[in-house]
Amino acid sequence: MKKIDGRRIAEKMEEEIKRGVEGKEIKIVTIVVEGSEESLLFAKLKDRACKRTGIEHEIIGIEHAKQEEIEKEIDYLNENEEITGINIQLPLPSSINHYELVKKISIEKDIEGIHPYNMGNLLFSYEEIVPCTPKAVLKIIENEDILLEGKNVVIVNHSTIIGKPLAILMLNRNATVSVCHIYTKNLSSYTRKADILITATGVKWLIKGDDVKNDCVIIDAGIKKEGEKVYGDVHESALKKARAFTPVPGGVGPVTISCMLENSLIAYKKLHKRI
User: Fold this and answer.
1) What pLDDT is stored for residue 275 in this prediction?
2) Structural domains of the chain, ranges and CATH numbers in brackets
3) What are the two backbone dihedrals, phi and then psi, of residue 64, each rounded to the nearest 5 degrees?
4) Does the annotation count 39 as an active-site position?
5) Which of 16, 32, 230, 263 has an alpha carbon within 20 to 30 A of 189's alpha carbon?
6) Which of 27, 89, 139, 258 is catalytic?
7) Active site includes 89?
């Protein structure tokens, strides 16, 4: 049983990104719709990572925002030549249409890889700017030299920003993929067959020992905060059966932020046609 150190992977990525950023004027913006403590926390984590790598970062907080206000802000940032990357911090209020905001972002400034153009490219195995959490999962798997071809990969999440693009990335590497979600009946009948289990539900200890097979690989991208403690989707009884697993915290999260930084560097090169 190996605990995969996501923080160490992120540190190695940051070292490489810092070298790539040197001599370039990269400035990214994170839009935060105020009212969510969780959103602001993630934005601040991004800010610290940017400072470590030499990327200029601005957090724009919009209080009691309406759809039109945020779209106008995105239009301004698209036109501003000093800005090389834009991302929208989730979660958003239910009144805000995330898809419409994402469509507004210039393709060249989409550092989250979730503009319909960049998402569509994944279907053609053209992986230039890839959604950050799926990219982080892939980085972890590659770092551990885990072969995907022919493996049974089970993903417990079917969201637009994690489960769906992640499934495509796995298919692009010739894995056999099952995507499960809240409407999946008898979830454990799928998870017990997984060579590689990737879960991102935010449901504390959803996956227990009886739900996995021996020597599987578990990537836990779920997070649930209760008081001062943070929990993942996977119970310790399941982790004990795995040959490798990511902890929560300190697993997928740090690598996700590093992937956003890496995307920022790719976006800068794309914007300046230095590719």
Assistant:
1) 43
2) 25-106 (3.40.50.10860), 132-254 (3.40.50.720)
3) 50, 45
4) yes
5) 230
6) 89
7) yes
